[in-house]
Amino acid sequence: MNKAKKGILLVNLGTPDSPSVPDVRRYLNEFLMDGRVIDIPAWRRFFLVRGIIVPFRAPNSAKLYRAVWNDETGSPLLHYSLLQQRLLQERLGDEYHVELAMRYQNPSIASALARLRPMNLEQLRIIPLFPQYASASTGSVIDKVMELIRSWHTFPEVSIVNDFYDNERMIDVFAENARKHDLTAYDHVLFSYHGLPVRQLNDVTPDGSHRCETAGCRERIDEHNRYCYVAQCYATTRLLAGKIGIDADRYTVCFQSRLGKTPWVEPYTTDALKAVAANGAKRLLVFSPAFVADCLETIYEIGTEYATEFKALGGEQVQLVESLNDHPLWITALQQLATGETTRDTQLHNRAPQKTTIVE
Questions:
Q1: Residue 272: which of 169, 151, 185, 356 has the closest Cα?
Q2: How many CB atoms lie within 10 A of CB 192?
Q3: 276 contacts 188 by C-beta, under 8 angstroms
Q4: Helix-helix angle 328-339:168-178, to 10 degrees
Q5: Which of 299, 257, 294, 13 minimizes the C-alpha distance to 130?
Q6: 3-state secondary structure of 158
Q7: Which domains does the chain have, with CATH numbers?
Q8: CA-to-CA distance for 251 and 65, rounded, in angstroms?
Q9: 101, 127, 182, 256: which one has the fewest Cβ atoms less than 10 Å from its Cβ?
Q10: pLDDT tens-digit map of 104-158
């Protein structure tokens, strides 16, 4: 007999079922056809994604996925996400039932909700596994969950974790992982976040008037820019920098993984690499605090592509700081998010404005 009265749905971005071209093509089609990811009219998105991006990108992306795929555990993102699910279930006990889903591909949100629905739960808590809120990630998860449970006749009490960019335990884990390396041995630190088109930031305010430059998103976070992805990224950075004790002139905030010619949030990580190399940096320590598990974007994009690019610019080493993965403190953070007993580290949210990037 099922004892669980509270359901937890963890949702991460997604991964192809295998590194084969057909599976990668299927994943990219679902991902890029999401109107919150590529926010243009549906007919334009269809021709752009199905006719141009995916046919050319799928074979190359399949090669990249093969580079990080493990013969025994498969996708690193799915591997660590399953570990997080299992460890969280052990922490929470029989009162809770924890399901894992991916926004794109498998295990699907639909299949996870189908397992939760018959349990006659009193509460259902949705935890999108993205520290910083963005419409294209957290917003898309919430949108999909709401679409699927709309047909339910009865609803449990539903709650959603919108973000956890300032979760104290999360910050502690990243800091602890950084201390595995000799911080004094690195000339500069990069905090590299996943990028977003600039236009997607405008709708942070209901009237679409938000602009990071006038809202001061790189210097502070407050009730006016509370849901700005850039403001949350910089807030996470200030907390991490304060925790490991580095001054603002020793680190750069940057954004990776842009797509197409539309302006994305700057500075781009590739430009940051050029800038720090031009200033004589030889050894870089790189955080990727937009991800809770190591994946293609951390292991390969930073650990291989950016490392190769930096060495071509005269650098010597790019050292990636391990993600949260299955660290016990991160499981504690998930436990707090699941029960609502979150801890937010507000001490360094809004330090006096300092130089936060060396990119001119």
A1: 356
A2: 27
A3: yes
A4: 170
A5: 13
A6: strand
A7: 6-160 (3.40.50.1400), 168-329 (3.40.50.1400)
A8: 30
A9: 182
A10: 999 999 999 999 999 999 999 999 999 999 999 999 999 999 999 999 999 999 9
Specify the pLDDT at position 342: 66
Beta bridge partners of 7: 97, 124
Q: Please write the tens of the pLDDT for every residue from 254-268.
A: 999 777 778 899 999
Are 293 and 81 a contacting pair, CB within 8 Å? yes
Q: Are 290 and 194 in contact (CB under 8 A)?
A: yes
Structure tokens at 36: 């919150």
Hunting for tokens 């490392």 — which residue is that?
Answer: 307
- Per-residue pLDDT tens digits for 157-179: 999 999 999 999 999 999 999 99
Q: How buried is 273 (Cβ within 10 angstroms: 0-12 exposed, 13-18 middle, 19+ buried)?
A: buried
Cβ atoms 251, 241 nearer than 8 A: yes
Per-residue pLDDT at 276 exceeds 90: yes
What pTM value is reported for the model? 0.93
